[in-house]
Design goal:
This protein is an alpha+beta fold and about 70 residues long. The chain has one domain. It contains 2 helices and 5 strands, in the order E-E-E-E-H-H-E. Strands 1-2-3-4-5 form a 5-stranded antiparallel sheet, covered by helices on one side. The mean pLDDT is about 95.
Length: about 70
């Protein structure tokens, strides 16, 4: 999945698959990549336009959607 870099101290990049409603987030500190399932497209778009991507993630995504950590390549 293609991810785009964002200006955030918490999140390095974000990608989205609208067909499968999968949100992919790469975190700055760990470098880990997580996929969140069943995320509506408006949530992804709000994340991209949020003043603080990290705060939006904490308030609206973390703990709200099933997720998996992707293995490192």
């Amino acid at each position: 999945m293609q991810r785009q870099a964002v200006e955030s101290s918490m999140i390095r990049s974000v990608g989205y698959d609208p067909q499968h409603q999968i949100l992919e987030i790469e975190f700055v500190k760990s470098g880990d990549v997580y996929q969140y399932r069943d995320v509506p497209q408006p949530v992804y778009q709000d994340l991209l336009t949020a003043t603080s991507h990290g705060q939006y993630f904490q308030a609206h995504i973390r703990g709200e959607y099933p997720y998996q950590k992707l293995p490192r390549h």
